[in-house]
Amino acid sequence: xxxxxxxxxxxxxxxxxxxxxxxxxxxxxxxxxxxxxxxxxxxxxxxxxxxxxxxxxxxxxxxxxxxxxxxxxxxxxxxxxxxxxxxxxxxxxxxxxxxxxxxxxxxxxxxxxxxxxxxxxxxxxxxxxxxxxxxxxxxxxxxxxxxxxxxxxxxxxxxxxxxxxx
Amino acid sequence: xxxxxxxxxxxxxxxxxxxxxxxxxxxxxxxxxxxxxxxxxxxxxxxxxxxxxxxxxxxxxxxxxxxxxxxxxxxxxxxxxxxxxxxxxxxxxxxxxxxxxxxxxxxxxxxxxxxxxxxxxxxxxxxxxxxxxxxxxxxxxxxxxxxxxxxxxxxxxxxxxxxxxxxxxxxxxxxxxxxxxxxxxxxxxxxxxxxxxxxxxxxxxxxxxxxxxxxxxxxxxxxxxxxxxxxxxxxxxxxxxxxxxxxxxxx
Lengths: 166, 251
Hints:
The complex is a heterodimer of chains A (166) and B (251). With 166 residues, chain A is mainly α. Chain A has helices at 2-30, 33-53, 57-80, 97-100, 104-112, 116-127, 132-139, 143-165. Chain A is globular and about 60 Å long. In chain B, 35% of the residues are buried.
């Protein structure tokens, strides 16, 4: 019985500690308070065993980024299947998206148009501002793969924006 | 600072967690003072943290701890994704064109004593059907959508605080079947998102119905089917009803 109580306390302590970071991240990606609340619970439940085993906060965050990014992108994908028109891109965008990527909204709109395998690296790099090495660590893939996927994402985005500007 | 001259999300999060070394924290704080973009991110995180502590944590900590502390081995396997492997993609007489999504009957919250505020803030649960055309392409099934034999459908649940879900279908011949948990005797715990498995539409045509029955406690499938079949409300549940029709594909 006491073991259950201890475990309860540990879970709630970790939820109190990491929940805000997860919630903020889900809210940033999903842009919806209620969806972010649901997502926070799901991500925390999935990430809990990794957090418990993580040697430090940076390692715990890497798991949080990985799992929350995949979860939220799946939610966004499901929402985009609801046959609602995709949000229009802003009119004032150039042909060189690297400079525009500081605008997270634009980055997220381009992410939603990208193939699935490019989305998570693009979110972590352009929306979260992680370095390539950190993206690789968070997603459990090589840095070379990250570079290739980011290059492909940028190439597609450049073409897409050029078409829009034409 | 990252190569683009800004703090990464990791640095900002670690600063918020007070997990940076003192010298790193000082550099990050100094950057925040002079960078509007990073300051904006920091302020957003602080604001979200306050929201989490004030509203989200109190509402959700009970469910989160109970899911993590009291889950059975089967639940844990399901939680970690093994459920998908155990659920076969079956061809059943599920169907698909939705004629209306309505929360039926008992509009009372799932558990007023516990969830009133929660449901009130988050709204009613929803249930969506996504169809994959046998001819290619996919769509959310709507009122006037016509689906055909061979199309596949998936379900997406948003429980809005409800813990359990039972999905019941009634085919054009009037037979009632449980689609989630597949052929289950009781409703199953549900989390927001896509339900495991997909269903291929059979050759029968006509108007069919789906009910997503959300509840705070697990409900007996037989009792739920009896109530729905008789056109009655389901005590202790919020029901999302979808009616649809299915047509044979033209030449």
